Automatic annotation (TrEMBL):
Taxonomic classification: Bacteria, Pseudomonadati, Pseudomonadota, Gammaproteobacteria, Oceanospirillales
One protein family per Pfam: ThiS
Entry superkingdom: Bacteria
Source organism: Halomonas flagellata
Name under which the protein is recorded: Sulfur carrier protein ThiS
InterPro entries on file: Beta-grasp_dom_sf (IPR012675), Mopterin_synth/thiamin_S_b (IPR016155), Thi_S (IPR010035), ThiS/MoaD-like (IPR003749)
């Protein structure tokens, strides 16, 4: 299945959840925000939302500083 991840084409296993994508990116447990097709996906729904062909996904992680 093809999606757009942070503006780049990416081929993924079909029927992948947002949580599985986050884990495959090595971002599990980090402070991140995920948006699918311009809608923010709450962390509590990451395991329920399945990605589909052509989805546009943005993953942003917080970087602390001072």
């Amino acid at each position: 299945m093809q999606i757009q991840l942070n503006g780049e084409a990416r081929t993924l296993t079909p029927d992948l959840t947002v949580a599985e994508l986050v884990e495959s990116l090595g971002l599990a447990g980090r402070r991140i925000a995920v948006e699918v097709n311009e809608e923010i996906v709450p962390k509590s729904a990451h395991g329920e939302i399945r990605l589909a062909e052509g989805d546009r996904v943005e993953v942003v992680h917080a970087i602390g500083g001072g």
